[in-house]
# Entry
Amino acid sequence: MLKAGAKRSAGAFWRPGEPAVIAASLVSDGETIFEIGETVTCPLSKTELQRLATSGPEATETFETALAEALSRLPSEIVGIGGAEMMGRGGPNPDFNGAVLAEVLDRPIATDFADADLRLGGAGAPLGASLAHALARMDPAKGPLLLLDIDSATTRAIYADPALKADKDGALLAFEAGPGLPSFTDTGAGGSADETALDLLLADPHFLRLAPKSAQPDAFAAYLDHLATLAPEDAEATALAAIALSLVTGLDLLPKAPRRALVFGPARHEPRLISALTEALECPVPPAEEAGIPGCALHALACAHLAVRAMRGLPTSFPGTTGVRTAVGGASLSRPGQLA
# Structure
């Protein structure tokens, strides 16, 4: 039996080009997470990916089918769906009809979480901050949490202080900290970080800007160009050092020093990175799985959590995370029975 006010929700996330739709579930009242449920990964075939790369009815039908397949495998009272806009990166998702999915799944569908934020001057992303705050609240005695989402292109950070309500100043801060971790093969050769590359990184104007902030399309170009000239073993060592250095620089933006961190995204599987981050941040920095959270499903979980917050009228984005003028909530909600 669920606690009063709690909802079992599911979220689905797909970023254009990714080989699968990921869905995840949780039980939450929009502020407290009572349970993190199952995660479902639905691979997309080469043909499906080709269709999704186009526009028009075929792409829409393919996307709706993939979403329905993933979400139908998870019990829920409400569903949230998001894509690349959750992160502020990547191309747009194919169109889909929320009313169709609500009918197929026989449950309400929440989408378009960024709209209200954009109307009030926000960047529309990132939209996972309320999830980060709820995760921090699962063990508030451990203090402020730094949630890290690291892929091959970017390192994203969300700071959450469980001692404050999510809409209070200093409770949440989000920013792109620096470059990500390119796909290297571990050479085992013990390369050295290149100081010239790291100097070029820190000279980037991105590090002079205050949070919240997203990296410009040409950010870190000089660093990346120099990285490409290095021997593989030195490029690996430099990329690892660059992420740690970016985050150490980003600590100056935070209201308090984080006392713990969790790593999501593909880079969480890299033990050398985990070691470098633990040393640089001077706090525990485990992969998300060590805290019982699926590290591949950050954005799907965020969609599930946002759906509950939107249903309850709670804020879904905040000045410290998107630059919006004031904390704001909202989403488009489709319910079963709306189709003519």
Notes: Residues 232-250 form the longest helix (19 residues).
